[in-house]
């Protein structure tokens, strides 16, 4: 089992719709969770971090964390073509010096 | 505030040669991380510096890779001798606290 899993996609949504990105992780001791956005050929850009169970909203983005289910998600409301990118779920493991473990990423395409 | 910078942006070398990658973290960030993404795979942790000390080097693939951070400022990652499977994108990230990591643009390494 991979430590962080994501559907690779591509996920296609029409402009203005809600995009839902999902991630599961295997280490129950994980405490910190991140969503990075990566445009093709560019570096990962942090868009959300979440540490407690529940929802965290920042503009059009909402991160949701459920530690009991070892599940974290990212919702993008009013999706725009500029949101088209690969979204990386990342988890900090407490089992080995806080290193960040990345999922494989989900490719999102927002269709105008 | 200047972001994380990496040099070179691209490197093409032959198998058996040596390549040195450089990372300049954000000023004041004690934590510096190296990651690698090989084609089709997820971003993988290589190692973590706190100032000039190696906090965690569990992700270094083998002894052909040597990372240094003399003086606790910039870091270098040397691959000697390079092998075909070393091709990929090498990212550097830095953080002030061990949570939010800011990524550099990456160095794209191709070993022929």
Q: Your description of this structure?
A:
The complex is a heterodimer of chains A (112) and B (112). By secondary structure, chain A is mainly beta. Chain A is built from no helices and eleven strands. Chain A has strands spanning 4-6, 11-14, 19-25, 32-38, 45-50, 54-58, 61-66, 71-76, 85-92, 100-102, 106-111. In chain A, strands 2, 4, 5, 9, 10 and 11 form a six-stranded mixed β-sheet that branches. A five-stranded antiparallel β-sheet of chain A has the order 1-3-8-7-6, with no helix packed on it. In chain A, β6 (54-58) and β7 (61-66) form a beta hairpin. The N and C termini of chain A lie far apart (36 Å). Chain B is 0% helix and 49% strand. Chain B is built from no helices and eleven strands. In chain B, strands 2, 4, 5, 6, 9, 10 and 11 form a seven-stranded mixed β-sheet that branches. In chain B, strands 1-3-8-7 form a four-stranded antiparallel β-sheet, with no helix packed on it. Chains A and B meet through β4, β5 and β10 of A and β5 and β10 of B.
Number of strands of chain B: 11
Task: Report the order of strands and helices of chain B.
Answer: EEEEEEEEEEE
Sheet bearing the most strands of chain A, described? 6 strands, mixed
The helical percent of chain A reads under 10%
Overview features:
heterodimer, A: 112 residues, mainly beta, five-stranded antiparallel sheet, B: 112 residues, seven-stranded mixed sheet, four-stranded antiparallel sheet, 49% strand, globular
Q: What's this, in brief?
A:
Chain A has 112 residues and is mostly beta strands. In chain A, 0% of the residues lie in helices and 54% in strands. In chain A, the strands form 2 sheets. In chain A, strands 2, 4, 5, 9, 10 and 11 form a 6-stranded mixed sheet that branches. A 5-stranded antiparallel sheet of chain A has the order 1-3-8-7-6, with no helix packed on it.
């Amino acid at each position: 089992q991979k430590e962080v899993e994501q559907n690779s996609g591509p996920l296609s949504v029409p402009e203005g719709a809600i995009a839902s990105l999902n991630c599961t992780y295997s280490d129950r001791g994980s405490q910190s969770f991140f969503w990075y956005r990566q445009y093709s050929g560019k570096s990962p850009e942090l868009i959300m971090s979440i540490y407690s169970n529940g929802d965290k909203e920042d503009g059009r983005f909402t991160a949701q964390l459920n530690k009991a289910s070892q599940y974290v998600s990212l919702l993008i409301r009013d999706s725009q073509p500029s949101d088209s990118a690969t979204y990386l779920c990342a988890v900090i493991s407490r089992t080995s010096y806080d290193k960040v473990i990345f999922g494989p990423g989900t490719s999102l395409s927002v269709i105008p | 505030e200047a972001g994380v910078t990496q040099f070179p942006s691209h490197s093409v070398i032959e198998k058996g040669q040596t390549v040195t990658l450089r990372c300049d973290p954000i000023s004041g960030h004690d934590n510096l991380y190296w990651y690698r993404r090989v084609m089709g795979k997820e971003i993988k942790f290589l190692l973590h510096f706190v100032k000039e000390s190696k906090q965690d080097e569990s992700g270094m693939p083998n002894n052909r890779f040597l990372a240094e951070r003399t003086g606790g400022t910039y870091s270098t990652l040397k691959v000697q001798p390079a092998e075909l499977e070393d091709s990929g994108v090498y990212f550097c990230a830095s953080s002030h606290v061990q949570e939010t990591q800011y990524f550099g643009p990456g160095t794209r390494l191709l070993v022929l």
